[in-house]
Amino acid sequence: GLGVLPRPMAALGAYRCIECNGEATELYRDYQRGVLRISICKSCQKPVDKYIEYDPVIILINAVLCKAQAYRHILFNTKINIHGKLCVFCLLCEAYLRWLQLQDSSQNTDPDDLIRYAKEWDFYRMFGIASLEQTSFFTGIFIALWWMTPEMLKRKSDFILLLKALLLSTYGKLLLIPAVIWEHDYTPLCLAFIKVFVLISNSQAIRVTLNLNRILPWFAIFFGLILENGVVCLFQKMGWDV
Question: Which UniProt keywords apply (predicted)?
Answer without folding.
Answer: Endoplasmic reticulum, Lipid metabolism, Lipid transport, Membrane, Transmembrane, Transmembrane helix, Transport
